[in-house]
Design a protein that fits this description.
Aldehyde Dehydrogenase, Chain A, domain 1; Aldehyde Dehydrogenase, Chain A, domain 2; seven-stranded mixed β-sheet; binds nicotinamide-adenine-dinucleotide; oxidoreductase; Ald_DH_CS_CYS; aminomuconate-semialdehyde dehydrogenase activity; retinal dehydrogenase (NAD+) activity
């Protein structure tokens, strides 16, 4: 890879105990839209994690004894500061991740701001339980207290969005944290650290240790004084984390991959369904855990759907992420692009048909982006349910479209994967959408829409898509320890 000669490299530092500290070694971070190394990320290990956990432990007594209102005010201030710098954060996220500037401006950074505001508000509204037992002259009540130092590990697809979805509830509840963002997308977390002091977050409450999963991530997971780990990432890494944390009986929240179906019945409103399903397949280059990658269309509308869907997908413009008219940016890395392309090749080798995108349509890129990791939105059909493209998470701009006949059949096929994160159902028959939603093995079911979220309600997956839920009440329960107290009077 060539270095960006015109600019000095951006060098990140860990944030421990309220101070930026350099690291003895670094890993390179690439700009996915040019292929250049533009940033160096600390390659932290045991030593750095140890220092961060110590700082978090030292900060815990004071932070946990603050009132929820005091913590809420600090979270709101931090939200305001990020919002004030929204454009700078959006630019950084787009450059670091390859996502379009439009997506970073309208989804990633606004949601990061909202995460802090949401938990700043929700932390004020929890109540605990009380029961009476007159025959024993007793009453019982519950108390909830923060757990201690929370380890937070996040992926590269929605960097600040997903990291703040963990930091906000963790510190709102009174925990202190050691966070490890993905080594491929660390810049916005580092930028956020620069705002913590001004927001009034005391030193040691939020520590960020940058580095790889194998070194920094494992050191955090194996640290005996980090009793809970909140992880978002792949199912494979979650298995490793579960094993490594087992000797310590850690509390785990695992938000993992998906192979999300869209089920489109013949009475669906296609004028809504088609643009939304194109978006659910290709938004953020298909690098969202909730993206649709298996589209089941009822036989009677199959050919019309396919024609209109492909036409709509072809309208999506792929190119320089900083161009506000571009819909599809670069994929995260060269290796990931290769992996996604290989899925398309495998499908073709199995006899499937690629209707548009990879290998079928020309990809014209601006001169500065020739070495970037780009791929066109790709639609595959005539693919068997057993094919790896219909079973495994691809996590790129690739979606498969197949036909079905009956409700019973499609539920079985939709459930026929190891994952169970999100599903969408399109129909104008109210009875049917309820029926199907009940029977889908999926933590989230959207009917006649996609990605409409109320953060109050539980988010998370079934089967290999995860363990635990996040949301107002769910995150509160995860990040606190409950105690039942009995009083005899
Ligand atoms: P990943 O599992 O490779 O990495 C996620 C994080 O874990 C990174 O910070 C990484 O450095 C760290 N890590 C890797 N190995 C580790 C180890 N042995 N110990 C501790 N930490 C380790 O995932 P990714 O490729 O960054 O992200 C893509 C995956 O995330 C996809 O599978 C996607 O579906 C999933 N995802 C899920 C959700 C959800 O909410 N369910 C949201 C976004 C992404």
């Amino acid at each position: 890879p060539t270095m960006a000669h015109s600019q000095a490299l951006l060098v990140l530092e860990n944030f421990i105990g309220g101070k930026f500290v350099p690291c003895s070694s670094y890993v390179d971070s690439y700009n996915p839209s040019t292929g250049d190394v533009y940033c160096r990320v600390p390659d932290s290990g045991k030593e750095e994690v140890e220092a961060a956990v110590k700082a978090a432990k030292d900060a815990f007594p004071i932070w946990s004894s603050k009132s929820p209102l005091e913590r809420s005010q600090i979270l709101n201030k931090l939200a305001d500061l990020i919002e004030h710098d929204l454009e700078a954060f959006a630019q950084a996220e787009s450059k670091d991740q390859g996502k379009t500037i439009t997506f970073a401006r309208t989804v990633d950074i606004p949601r990061a701001v909202h995460n802090f505001r949401f938990f700043a508000s929700s932390i004020l509204h929890h109540v605990t339980e009380c029961t009476e037992m007159p025959s024993m002259d007793c009453m019982h009540y519950t108390l909830r207290a923060p757990v201690g130092v929370a380890g937070l590990i996040s992926p590269w697809n929605l960097p600040l969005y997903l990291l703040t979805w963990k930091i906000a509830p963790a510190i709102a509840c009174g925990n202190t944290v050691v966070a490890k963002p993905s080594e491929m997308t660390s810049v916005t977390a580092w930028m956020m650290c620069k705002l913590l002091e001004k927001a009034g977050v005391p030193p040691g409450v939020v520590n960020v240790v940058f580095g790889t999963g194998a070194k920094a991530g494992e050191a955090l997971v194996c640290h005996p004084e980090v009793p809970l780990i909140s992880f978002t990432g792949s199912t494979l890494t979650a298995q490793r984390i579960t094993e490594r944390s087992a000797p310590h009986c850690k509390r785990l929240s695992l938000e993992l991959g998906g192979k999300n179906p869209a089920i489109i019945f013949d009475d669906a409103d296609l004028s809504q369904c088609i643009p939304t399903t194109v978006r659910s397949s290709f938004a953020n280059q298909g690098e969202i855990c909730l993206c649709t990658s298996r589209i089941f269309v009822q036989r009677g509308i199959y050919s019309e759907f396919l024609k209109r869907f492909v036409a709509e997908a072809k309208k999506w413009k792929t190119g320089n992420p900083s161009d506000p008219t571009v819909d599809v940016g670069a994929l995260i890395s060269k290796e990931h692009l290769e992996k996604v392309r290989n899925y398309v090749k495998k499908a073709q080798a199995e006899g499937a048909r690629v209707l548009c995108g990879e290998g079928v349509d020309p990809l014209a890129l601006p001169p500065g982006n020739q070495k970037g990791y780009f791929m066109l939105p790709t639609v595959i059909t005539e693919v068997k349910d057993e094919s790896c493209c219909m079973q495994e998470e691809i996590f790129g701009p690739v979606t498969c479209v197949v036909a079905f006949d009956t409700e019973e059949e499609v539920i079985k096929r939709a459930n026929g994967v190891k994952y169970g994160l999100a599903a969408t159902v399109w129909s104008s028959n109210v009875g049917r959408v309820h029926r199907v939603a009940h029977r889908l093995q999926s933590g989230l079911v959207w009917t006649n829409c996609w990605l409409v979220r109320d953060l109050n309600l539980p988010f998370g997956g079934m089967k290999a898509s995860g363990i635990g839920r996040e949301g107002a009440k769910d995150s509160y329960e995860f990040f606190t320890e409950v105690k039942t107290i009995t009083i005899k009077h």
